[in-house]
Design a protein that fits this description.
Oligomer: single chain
CATH superfamily of the largest domain: SPRY domain
Strand content: 35-45%
Order of helices and strands: EEEEEEEEEEHEEEEEEEE
Radius of gyration: 21 Å
Largest sheet: 7 strands, antiparallel
Number of helices: 1
Number of strands: 18
CATH topology of the largest domain: Jelly Rolls
CATH architecture of the largest domain: Sandwich
Structural class: mainly beta
Length: 240
């Protein structure tokens, strides 16, 4: 920007490199922003401008910068009775079907260092969120064998880890709630007696409350399946 004013707001635009027009993706005072729902392995162009306090006009656009992501988007597995999916398969709706199991992700797309967010919309009722280990390679294995699963279950307040209820509780999961998972690798020392060789530290957050626990594994695991289930119809969950 020019030197004659201090930026107060920013306007970020993007487009696919093959597109002719930019579109707004963010307007505000933050200097960082995560753009969601972009296609992997596709070039995108980004540009930004700014304006100062009391100004109505924006500064000239920056020179467009080109970038791409190689991250595979999170998707739910299609075809499970009891759930309907959006066209991008990142939103699942619990329908009126009597049969309803656990809906898992299509692939182990949740990696260490990322934040996984469940955003829920719908009726009040029992809901669960489960993180599962990529040790279970196939959906059939995932359905019948829970060994190697984090098995972290969120009920409206209680959090269960490997079947044991945690002391700390999260706020009730209601319509509009978001629940986030953050995961990092924690080194195990050579003299560790924790019964495993690999440990993940998982932080679950909801409505400014957090639960943190360590999960000890017998083998290296840096990517996870995730899943959810709802006991009542009408719930809708977006994962990103």
């Amino acid at each position: 920007v020019d030197d004659d004013f201090v930026p107060q707001d920013y306007r970020l635009q993007y487009r696919k490199s093959s597109a002719s027009h930019f579109e707004d993706v963010y307007v505000g005072s933050e200097t960082e922003f995560i753009v969601l729902h972009i296609d992997p392995n596709v070039d995108y162009q980004f540009r930004v401008c700014a304006r100062g306090d009391g100004r109505q006009e924006w500064s000239p656009w920056s020179v467009p910068q080109t970038g791409r992501t190689t991250l595979v988007p999170h998707e739910w597995t299609a075809g499970l009775e009891g759930y309907s999916l959006s066209s991008r398969r990142n939103i699942a709706l619990r329908n009126d079907s009597q049969s309803c199991g656990v809906l898992y992700s299509k692939a182990p797309t949740y990696f260490c260092g990322q934040t996984l967010t469940f955003s829920k919309v719908g009726v009040t009722g029992v809901c669960e969120a489960v993180l599962c280990s990529s040790v279970l390679r196939t959906q059939s294995q995932l359905s019948r064998d829970r060994r190697g699963c984090v098995n972290t279950t969120l009920y409206p307040r209680a959090v269960f880890v490997n079947g044991k209820e945690m002391t700390n509780q999260l706020p009730a999961v209601t319509s509009g709630s978001t629940v986030t998972f953050d995961m990092e690798v924690v080194p195990l020392g050579p003299s560790s007696n924790e019964g495993g060789t690999f440990k993940l530290r998982v932080t679950i957050s909801s409505n400014n409350r957090e639960v943190v626990f360590d999960w000890v594994l017998d083998q290296c695991c840096v990517s996870l399946y995730f899943g959810c289930s709802f006991s009542y119809p009408g719930w809708k969950v977006l994962v990103f």
